[in-house]
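User: structure tokens for this one?
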Amino acid sequence: MPELVPDVPEQALDPVRPPLALEDVPNPDELRLAYETATRSRTVEEHIVRLASRGDVKFAIWGPGEEVHGVATALALSKVVGPERFGIVPHYRSGAMISMWCALHGVGDFARTMLRQQFSKDSDTMSRGRQMVYHLDIRDLGVLPVQSPVGMQLSKAAGWAMGFKAKGIKGGLAMGIVGDGTTAEGDMHDAMNAASVWSLPVIIMVTDNGVAISTRPDDGRGIKDFAAYAKSFGVRFFSCDGRSFDDTYATTLAAARVAAHEERPVFLYVHSLPRFNGHSSAADMTFDLGQDDPIIRFGEQLVERGVIEAADALRRVPGTGRDFFAHHELGRIMGRQDEEIRALIEEVRGEADPPPESVTENIYPPFPRVSEPEPGAGTTNITYGAAIRSALDFIIRERGGLVTGQDVGRLGGVMQATAGLKARHPDKVIDAPLNEPLIVGTAMGFGLHDGLHALPEIQFGDYSLNAFHWLVHLGNLYWCTNGNSASALILRMPVDPFGGGAVYHSMSLDGYFTPIPGLVIVMPSTSWDIYGLLMTAGDYRGPVVFLEPKWMYRQTLGPAFPGEPTDAAGISALKKGIMRGDVPELPEDVRVPFGKGVIRRPGRDVTIISWGRAVWTSMKAAETLAEEGVSAEVIDLRTLVPPDLELIYESAARTGRVIVCAEDRAFAGFVRTIQGHVVERFPGMPTRALGQKNVPGIAQSLLLEHATVLTDEDITRASRELLATEVRGSSKGEGWAWVPPRFFVS
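Assistant:
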């Protein structure tokens, strides 16, 4: 087949690609399928362009110009892997590629699937009207869920490749695709680090059409030489001309074999791609006639080969108007497809829209149905940190867990929460690069695998904000895919002020993370609860964030575990072993349900609601109040999201006064959310929300730290003020009326 010879950028030259073996040459049926898929993709997208230009489509994104590259890539990949050993996070311009991949594996109606998403129909199997077009999710074929922030494809793909290694799957292959503009994102550097350090079987593909929406490379791309960039990471570099079927197919085939068979990363640079229409329906939609069309050239090649006839092929003709159809004679193949697509569009537009009430469906994967067993007698001798080790050990052994994070292996974590695990599981406890988005992003991709559970740790919670966009995506993924996809992931991090940690080692994160829908967020205050909630999270197929107060790690608080030693010698041996970094053996049937709080201390005069370390600050305050004749009830939420509102309401109805307190700031904090629920349920009930002072950070000086954080004196003072407030009302439905003091100003 004659090959298109382009003007090739110097950096794109790849002198090591071997010649195509005879058995790898595409046969006529494959070539015809490739042409038909490319023209069908162009047909459907240009009809969407036409509808968008008329205002009949509210928004669309597309990829005319990348069809030949897409079908050639999919065909090459199919020669190396099947869906069971493959995972791709495509770009929004990858429609033809995924259409070809589907067709090669017996799913030939990709256009219908795509159009249902385009028109936000109830029949949209990928998102049920929740996502814009080309936010694909076809898990049976290895097409992983796509999100709008375009750089996130890469770490997600790297994490999927990690999953192949964890499962012992040989010859697996992952691929993440971005445009050239996205190479300016930190996500590119994150994924390249992960792929390089962990030697992952992943292809990082960059498709270069010379423009990012409207930004040209001179203004938006700092990487001047992709070959040198890949080499600096020790990553094998390949490049191809995206206009040429031959070059794309042969290069992708070689690149995929290196990545899959040698289990190493590959950087595949696809240059010289045209972009015929603007970035989206928000840009100029005029079809650009100033660029050569790869589909036309591909059709001419197939005619020369005798695969199709001249009358079958698309060709450009003189015409007037802005759109594609005015300037092209479609040929018999595309002409038939044009009729089919017109009918299909009308059929899909007539399908039902999603019902409004469906918007609240599939926010969370199903919670594990667990019952909390009776604890042992007395107080535990298992530290908070040791309970974490024991639960992680179980999840690694029984749930396919993989611990990643800074210093989690050799050091055992700066809080020693992973001590001893590296020795037990050398390949399942991995020290990660100093890069929080890398840690969380790859963990998300890893957790998409069935049978695996990602266990990332952020060294200090303050630095988790670098990965905030991953937390948002983790929270919305299950809902966005209408329950098709979720990442089984437990993200742990130490939080809250303690011991002079100063700014960036003392942050409380309740107020940052609790507003993210779709996440389960917990802050346990005892060894029993951290263990039981971790074990429940290990049974759950969605994301859970564990906020672990730094003060807690060496504490032995809460009830004992069944089977703990009770004799002095046994207790001494247990404590010494934990100090050495041993992993205690704890009962494997202990579970604490999500969304269930507990009353730590019963009372009748005031309800104090708290979580984490603030529980023990509240308990100390309750003791002081008891000496004054005040009976304070202390509730430990344990799970922040979803909170146990019924437990709160029941207690508030009995006591008539509520204080909500936490280590985080009260200003715009989660304490205000809980307070708001109480006030809405019981209008007029006197309440207070307490936390650290609203200053920019925690000082290193212990005196200043103490002056900033929540104290038991704050709680006792607020309790006295509430008790001095006259209230009318009861729990019998009469309502509450606050009688304000005379100096009250609203």
